[in-house]
Amino acid sequence: MTTTPQSAGHVVAAVIPAAGRGVRLGPGAPKALRGLGGVPILVHAVRAMLRARAVGLVVVVAPADDVAGVRSLLDSHGLPESKEIRVVAGGETRQESVRLGLAALPAEVDTVLVHDAARPLVPVDTVEAVAAAVRAGAPAVVPALPLADTVKEVTPGPPGSPEPVVGTPERARLRAVQTPQGFRRDVLTEAHEKIAAEGEGATDDAGMVERLGVPVVVVPGHEEAFKVTRPLDLVLAEAVLARRRASDVF
Ligand SMILES: Nc1ccn([C@@H]2O[C@H](COP(=O)(O)OP(=O)(O)OP(=O)(O)O)[C@@H](O)[C@H]2O)c(=O)n1
Ligand SMILES: C[C@](O)(CO)[C@H](O)COP(=O)(O)O
To answer: Which of 65, 68, 110, 113 is the residue whose CA sits 20 to 30 A from 151?
Structure first.
């Protein structure tokens, strides 16, 4: 096991929430366990984190009813043994799963990257860039991309019914947020303790940190770090992976 500093005095761990069902992807196994190029989505995500020199330890947050199954799945895929991989049970929400992953970190970890299992193809350069920005002093770092579409704010109505438009935010000021999101461990832990205690949900970890009043910065994301959410995303992921395998570039 190696949890020695991988990046100049910092001990960086990746927490991978992988306990979701993948309802929007359609019926089947939990999303992280479904195949992409013949390999479970989760295995791609774990490899993406292990490839980063900065990352010294990975915590996988598995569906609560299949922790042993996920452990043996990872063990059967020939992952490098130079870095420890822990597997813990997840919760009912992404927020709860991340909190359970944080609780499994060893004391010496001071920097945490939270990465969706559902973003299996994130390039290593994006992972390293997020870790480097935290190392450089930012308490919270988010990779993100400018939007291609114009966005409307609406008053939500019943599915399928016309929804009144409230406004059109200035697109140049908007970013679509990805993972891994990087944090000083103390900041992320405080966010999960306080915001969860307030009973407020959040769709990403940086959103919780923002509510503490801690500054969050954005660094460039990558179009191949997209989230596999709906069936078409899986088609795209298969195509990206096939191209990488053909050119041997990961
Ligand atoms: N209770 C949950 C819910 C989500 N996640 C994880 O959070 C990441 C991002 O969530 P999302 O893509 O929304 O996954 P699902 O919740 O599985 O998707 P859906 O909403 O379609 O069911 C995924 O890696 C997912 O496994 C988790 O660890 N625990
Ligand atoms: C964390 C995240 O991937 C950033 O875009 C996203 O917020 C997860 O959202 P979801 O509601 O779980 O799809």
So the answer is: 113
